[in-house]
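Incident log, structure service

09:12 report received: a user says their structure output differs between two submissions of the same chain.
09:20 pulled the input from the user's history:
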Amino acid sequence: MSYVLLITFPLALGASCFLLRKETQLVIGLAVAALIVQLALVLAMPTDQPVRLLGLTLNLDPLGRLFLAGFPAVTALMALASRRLPHGEHFMAIALIIIGVASAIVVLLQEPFVVALLLVSAGLLSVLAIVDLPTGTPTLIEPKVIASALKYLVLMACAGVLAYMGFVLINVYRPGISPDQTMPKLVLALIVVAFGTRIALVPFHSWLPDLVEDSSPMVSALIIVVLNTTGLLFLISVFQFFPALVAENERGLQLLTWSGGLAALIGAFLALVQDRPRRTVGYLVVYNAGMILFGLATTTSAGLAGAVFEAFNQTLAVPLLMVSLALLEQPDGRTPKATRRDMLWRWPVAGSGLLGSGAALIGLPPLSGFAGKMLLYDVAARHSVVLLLLLIGATALALLALARLARDWLIGAPEDQPVPETPIILGTTDLDLPPKRQLAPEPFIAALVVLVFLGASLAIGVYPQPLLETIADVIRGLTFVRG
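09:34 re-ran on a clean worker, output below:
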């Protein structure tokens, strides 16, 4: 019953939040409480104790518990930040339902057909969050938001169909019996295209920058953190339960290894040439997706550990990135047409959060992405010097993109330099003088959330051993991993 409770509890609370959606503060408080309870349920559940329910196998392994504990934790922090940040009327309800669907995906990883359908269902829920509007807003949904939502919906549906086709073919194939040796290659291609579309891998990445630019930052963070990460866990389970995809695809895995490095390089280059902060942020996530694919495609213990560590780092860095971005876009007392290039000096916590999250994604010390990137660099050096230079070049371009973002938006000169006071004319009253403009202070709760994310990223970066040991214990139990 614990597995059923893990799935149904956030679904039930999500329905309650939908009924109370007009009471924004009450819904946020209820959602935060529900997410804390969900976190406690995940931590209290035993691992590796499979059960059968309705003909399906449910199980929670240590790696699944690690991410299922991270999802409600970061979502609760985003919910707290949403008290002062714009978000859709149904955001809390949809977030809880997506957490419930993600829990079902993780505990049903041994049932790939069901998981493929659940991933498509999660994509449908995400579309509702993308086109959602704040409570009481008089505006209509913009056409570009609808276009981004439709693009995401179509691509996720195609990914689900491709994954389902792959599972049908792999169930037909019998190693050593079937004379068709091209079947594993075809299945691997279908699964990888579906996985690449899910995590926004080049060249299937176009939906993610559009999503980050057109939708609410909280929605983008929820989709990237929860659904993209469950896609990674799904692919690992596919390799585990269908080892023929790895054992009979040596050349295909080598191609995927190089494809991951090239995807990271292209994503970093596209981030560098963008002139809008949101698109730069989106392409930094695309760069990180290429690094994750590289580590996974090596099918080595170190490479897989680096990929999983990077996925967990992404669950911290992306919410921090989006909360900081949403904060910096808020009015600060200046006129709407004023070009704001000094936000690090105006709002230092939000500016530091944006820089810190970007540095964590890139893998700069002493933040949480450093250990994972070092594992990936080590694996690349063992494969080829050219491959190592490819990854280092991608990281260098991503660092330049972050530096350009900081120069153009964070550390520039103030746009409202003090001007000399005009002499007061005789007979002038206070009503004749222009009003004194006061710059708004940094929102306290949202700034506190940014500091919590920064502290967690710094703590993992300084002391990554517990997380690395947890990941290594799981990887040692995977049969497809090579030495």
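09:41 both user submissions now match this output. Likely a transient worker issue. Closing.
09:42 reviewer note: The longest strand covers residues 51-53. The CA atoms of residues 345 and 411 lie 7 Å apart.
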